[in-house]
Amino acid sequence: MTSNSTPILIVGAGFSGTLTAVHLLRCTAQQDVFITLLDPASTPGRGLAYRSNDDNLLLNVPAGNMSAFVDEPSHFVEFCQRIDPSINVGTFVSRRLYGRYLELCLQQAMITRPGRLHIMQDEALGVSALPDRAGFIVKLSSGHYLAAQHVVLAPGHQVPGFPLPLSPSEHERVIAPWDFERMNQLPGDAPILILGTGHTAVDALFHLTQQAQPRKLWMISRHGLLPHTHRLNPTPPPHSQYPTYIGEAPLRTRALLQHLRKEAAQQQQAGGDWRDALNQLRPHMPQLWQAMPLAERRRFLRHGLAFWDVHRHRLAPVSADRLQSLLEADKVKLLAARLTDIRKSNSGELEVGFKPRGQELRHTLNVAAIINCTGPRMTIGPHSSPLLQQLSRDGLLVPDDCNLGIQINDQYQPTHPQGEATLGLWYVGPMLKALHWEAIAIPELRIHTQQLAQRLARELATTSTPSPQAEHV
Asked: What is the pLDDT of residues 243-253, one digit of tens each?
C-alpha cells in the first residue's frame, strides 16, 4: 500500500472544511501550495446540514447574514438572486440551496486556482505524528496512507447521544435526525416519537408530516420549549460596543441572565425588539465565556442553556407558522418530560416510559421508531469516529472541562493536558464552542475558517519544514 504526500490535508468537507480549503486557495495564491480535501461523501461542501433536497427545510439565518465570506456580505444574496430575483437579505431560503452555493464556491475557487486542490473520497481512521516535526501519516479506510505537513481536522458534528441505554434490537428503532431515507421507509401511519424540540426536531417533524396520511407524532424534551421566531424582515446584527449594562467580566450566570432580561424588556418598552439585546451581545460572548469561572460555566449549562437556546437560535417566520399550524391541528403533541425506560414490546414497537415535568407518575407511549434529535455530542468517546477516538487515546485531542468540545488555543491548535500544542495539527468546527461559546453558526464559523487559513498561510510562508516524503507501508 503506497502513501502519497500533501502539504495540507483537510479532514472533512462540510462547511468548515470546505471554507477552509477555499480560503487557503485564496491566501496561498503566491505560494503554490497543494491541498487535499478528504471526506467520505461524494458531494464536498454540503455536509450533513445541507445535503437534503427537501426545500421545506429552511435555514434559520436570513440570507443577508449567510455569505461564506466576511468581506463580501452580499455574496450569497447575489447567488440567490441569480436564481430568484425576489430573494432579498431578509429571506430564509432552503438548506438545499445553501448546499448548492457552497459547492459552487468550492468549484469556483478550484477553477480560479487550478491544479492546487485535490478532493479525495475516503475516511481518515488515524493520524500519527512523524519524528522531528516532519509532519503526519494519516491512515485511510481504503487501506492507503497519506503523508501531510499540516492536518486540519474539520469532521463536523458527531452523532447525537441517547439519554438511556439501549439493547441492539431497541437501537435499531432509533433513527438519526438527518436520515430521511430511513424515515421514508416507515409506514405512513406508524406512530413516531421525536426526541428533542430544537431545530433538528422541527426539521424531522416537517419531513414526517409531508404526507397527507395522518399519523401519531409526539415531541418530547426535558423543558418542552420550542425555538422562538425571527422577526419579519430581519437585518444582520449591527456591530456594537461592549454592552456595559452586563457589567465587567467575570460574570456570574445569574447576573448575566438577569441583566440580559432587563435590557431586553427595556428595548421592547422603547419600541425596539428583545432580539436586538441578544444580537448586540453575540459578538462579545466569547470574551464573557472565557472570563467565566468553570463553576459558573457549568451552572449556566445546567440552569440557563435550554432558555438561552430557544431565544438565541430562532426559527424562520414561515417555519414557525407551519409549526404552530401543526400544533393547533393536533397533528403533533408537545410534551415536557424525561424518559425513564424503553423496551421492545411483543408487537415489535417500542414502549417508551416517561415522566412529565414536575410529576412522578410514569406514562407510556408505543411508537414504531424514535427520531433522536437531542443534539450533537461534543464529548469524545466510544460513539465517536475511529479518528477522534485515536486522537483522544494518543492525547492529541483533550476534552474541555465542560464537555463542550476540545481544549484548543487561540491559534486553532488542539492542546495537550500540559497546555502544549502539536505543531502542524489544527482544528476548526463546532467543537470550538468550548473556547468561544458562539462557534456553531455560519456567521462565526466563516470567520474562524478565514482566520485559520490566514494563520496556515503565514506558517507556510515562514517555516522551512519540508513536505513529508511518500512512504511505502
From this structure: 888 888 788 89
